[in-house]
Amino acid sequence: MTTRILLCCADAREGELLAAAGYGPVEVLGVGKAAAAASLARILATAPDVAGVLLFGICGAYPAPAIPPALSVLDVCVVAESVFADEGADSEEGFSDLVSMGLQPVASWTADVGRSGRVAAGLGVPLVRAATVSTCSGTAALSDAFATRTSAQVETMESAACAFACAAAGVWLVEVRCVSNRTGPRAQGNFRIREAAGLVQGTVGRILDAGWLSA
């Protein structure tokens, strides 16, 4: 019977407080698309009792996203949709993603609509779009390019890859992030990684206690 919710994060620091508080095992997938997707696919292939995945962690916020809202450091958000931001081909004529090149069937991946909406409403936080990257944007030029290209509000290294793995396994996904920094020049990023990791774990505890992930 598929009833278990899998708790997942990329880095151990994003899940250590939850595990210590007794919220069950937290699967540490590894940082980046390849590590996260491979780990999650392996777990889901060997765990037929998993009904869905609650992915959580930190993220960067685009200072001037193409579509509002613009988030501040330590804001919490629910990722409703994610897209691969830098998989494709770049040239003098501009960037072409894998869909436009005929190499991928869909441009974006959607989290579970009903559960994500309940969680966002319960927490009073926005639903956002995440750009999933291999290279985090530490310059204004790259930050602006990713934000404009994807219409995303936040930047992560795992979102779309984990959504891809969940879709392939036929399980639902809800993703919660806390902003740890602004993208762009790193000296201006206002990095607060430890605080953001603590906040997102407290938020996950609230979600589990409230039962918003029930069918």
What does it look like?
The protein has helices at 16-20, 33-45, 113-123, 140-150, 159-169, 193-210, and strands at 4-9, 26-28, 50-61, 76-84, 88-91, 94-97, 109-110, 127-132, 154-156, 172-182. It is α/β, with parallel strands linked by helices and 215 residues long. The protein has a single domain (4-210), classed as Rossmann fold, CATH 3.40.50. Strand 1 (4-9), helix 1 and strand 2 (26-28) form a beta-alpha-beta unit. The radius of gyration is 16 Å and the shape is globular. The model has no long low-confidence stretch (mean pLDDT 94).
In which order are the strands of the major sheet placed?
3-9-8-4-10
CATH topology: Rossmann fold
Proper CATH architecture? 3-Layer(aba) Sandwich
Number of helices, where a helix is a run of at least 4 consecutive DSSP H or I residues: 6
Classified in CATH, the superfamily is Nucleoside phosphorylase domain
**How much helical structure, as a percent, in the residues?**
25-40%
Q: Can you tell me the CATH class?
A: Alpha Beta
Output mean pLDDT.
94
Explain briefly what this protein structure is.
By secondary structure, the chain is an alpha/beta fold.
Set down the secondary structure blueprint.
Elements: E1 4-9, H1 16-20, E2 26-28, H2 33-45, E3 50-61, E4 76-84, E5 88-91, E6 94-97, E7 109-110, H3 113-123, E8 127-132, H4 140-150, E9 154-156, H5 159-169, E10 172-182, H6 193-210
Parallel strand pairs: 1-2, 1-3, 3-10, 4-8, 8-9
Antiparallel strand pairs: 3-9, 4-7, 4-10, 5-6
Helix pairs in contact: 2-5
